[in-house]
Amino acid sequence: MADITNKEYSCFNPGTRWNDQDGQPIQAHGGGVLFWEGKYYWYGENKDAPTEAAGACGYRTDVVGISCYTSDDLYNWTYEGLVLSAEPEDINHDLHPSKIMERPKVIYNSSTRQFVMWMHIDNSEYTLAKAGISVSASPTGPFRYLGSIFPNGADSRDLTLFQDDNGKAYLIHSSDWNKTLLISELNSDYTNVTGNFSRAFIDQYREAPAVFKRGGTYYMITSGCTGWAPNIALYAEATSMMGLWGLKDNPCQGPDARKTFHAQSTFVLPLQGKQDAFIFMADIWIPNNLSESKYVWLPISFDEDGIQINWSDQWDLSVFDHPETGT
Ligand code: DGJ
């Protein structure tokens, strides 16, 4: 039977325009990917709105909503629409277009059968710094917004979620005006924090956290804090999510490695069905035209010294094939 789907891509082309299956540029910035029942779901900021000046951070776009795209091969993505939309009728709502909604991450709670999304919520000047929570019974939404909190009483900016093998989940968030990163344990339904938390990288100004686990080791890649401008990434290792987290090195290698290839981390995606196969996801921000921001997806490799991320203009998932196991 003829393939009636339009599979435009058979590889990744980091930093270039990436269209969805309708030929439209993907709008999923600061995002993350969930694998669920045989499909990948990419959630991210839809920044398809004019860029304007915004306080100390320089630039912002109005809140449009959170996009969701689905894929079974990670190259070709189908737009599923906005799974959480702006609330233009209520100026006081966290999701009013005049606010900030960034870095959404989604995990699935098998006890409640809910998809749970956390995101950075802010005012237009980035001085509120809260974490928002929403839930949905379906991965393609609509998500119901539950509200925003100061997790463990702390301010919260860039964030990610990590769900451990034992079902425990954590919110990892830049706090204390970005000086310190907090790791806050989530409650059993993932919609609040438990009160159990730890601090990492105290006074070191790290943001854009992306966490993954390989064997018994937890890894966290972060960026420095330079607004929309790229800077050096660093990774850390721990034997438990709560730490201690030991800073290791810059994972990026080669030209532009000290600028994270002009990108900023957002997520690390574990490839399904392959051991030790992880994709580093990052955003190339275009500060004065944020909707044009691009994506950098690169494979992570491991050696005795730690992890490495090398630039590649073009690559595909065969880089993860391990000849010794035939997988
Ligand atoms: C860096 C953060 O990582 C982005 O998500 C965004 O909040 C910008 N700062 C704003 O300047």
UniProtKB/TrEMBL annotation:
SUPFAM superfamilies of this UniProt entry? Arabinanase/levansucrase/invertase
Q: Which GO terms describe its biological process?
A: carbohydrate metabolic process
This protein's UniProt keywords? Glycosidase, Hydrolase
Q: Pfam families attached here?
A: Glyco_hydro_43
A molecular function (GO) held by this record is: hydrolase activity, hydrolyzing O-glycosyl compounds
Which top-level group of life is the source organism from?
Bacteria
Family annotation (InterPro entries): Glyco_hydro_43, Glyco_hydro_beta-prop_sf
PANTHER family the UniProt entry points to: GLYCOSYL HYDROLASE 43 FAMILY MEMBER (PTHR22925), GLYCOSYL HYDROLASE FAMILY PROTEIN 43 (PTHR22925:SF3)
What's this protein's family per the entry?
Belongs to the glycosyl hydrolase 43 family.
Name of protein? Family 43 glycosylhydrolase
